[in-house]
Amino acid sequence: MATLTPPITRAELREEIQAIRADLRDEMQVMRDDMQVMRDEFKEHYATKADLARVRTDLADMKSELVKWIVGVALAGVAAAATLTAAVTTAVVSILGN
Known about the structure:
Layout: H1 10-45, H2 49-97
């Protein structure tokens, strides 16, 4: 023979509902925290338009600095070649002049 459980009282029902609400609030907070972590990870792993603009500016600055260095090295090479040519010319003139 099956035994019947007594019906739940209003106070017990209220306590159950409050416990369920508390559990749902806790679960919602966990979900909010997880979403915030995902947002933070997204920000860390993906660049924004401002980040890309900053990288482009940095690359343009590096490119201009590189061009300045290349021009400087080329001019130094030309100056060294001119100095060497003048020295060789002077040596040849002095040797042939004697």
